[in-house]
């Protein structure tokens, strides 16, 4: 009978740990609508999460300064060349005018360090633009699509959390079996 305890306790512990973590992960997304006053974390706080995500992206990841660092003289020159090629008019076919236009545009848009001028960039990318875009996109997501996005972004980590509950439950069950001796 004592040997059976070393089998049953860890198995029951694993099952309980697995189910507990599985339910906890599911409760992040469900229920989508309030049921008995309970609603999943993402559906309930979607707009708050969207605003926080927007702030993080805007403040630390993509802002006018980071965009400016990506727009150097060579990239802008190549962009101007592509624009001129794609929007050919009779006057731009004259090589001297094409070269002069490119030099004038670069002089107006590039600073001494070889990057896009901060004032020019900030005139069309304001501080909150990225925040608003991220916030709008997250708020437009259907909760089901948002759930898929979070699961795909988290990759195997969600499964690891669920399985670690099973492992922890196994250890606790085994410990209880030894304590009961």
Blueprint of the fold:
Layout: H1 2-29, H2 41-44, H3 46-61, H4 64-70, H5 73-86, H6 95-109, H7 118-124, H8 129-140, H9 143-154, H10 157-179
Helix pairs in contact: 1-10, 3-8, 5-6
Overall structural class, as computed from helix and strand content, comes to mainly alpha
- Indicate the overall shape: elongated
| Gyration radius, rounded | 29 Å
Which sequence of SSEs, written as H and E, runs from N to C? HHHHHHHHHH
Strand segment tally: 0
Mean pLDDT: 86
Helix content: over 70%
Counting H and I runs of at least 4 residues, what is the number of helices? 10
Largest sheet: none
Task: Give the termini distance in whole angstroms.
Answer: 11 Å
Strand content: under 5%
**Low-confidence blocks of residues:** none
Describe the structure.
This protein is mostly helical. The protein has helices at 2-29, 41-44, 46-61, 64-70, 73-86, 95-109, 118-124, 129-140, 143-154, 157-179. It has a domain at 1-45 and 143-181. The chain is elongated. The model has no long low-confidence stretch (mean pLDDT 86).
Question: Brief description of this entry?
Answer:
The protein is mostly helical and 181 residues long. 76% of the residues lie in helices and 0% in strands.
Task: Using brief descriptors, characterize the structure shown.
181 residues; mainly alpha; 10 helices; 76% helix
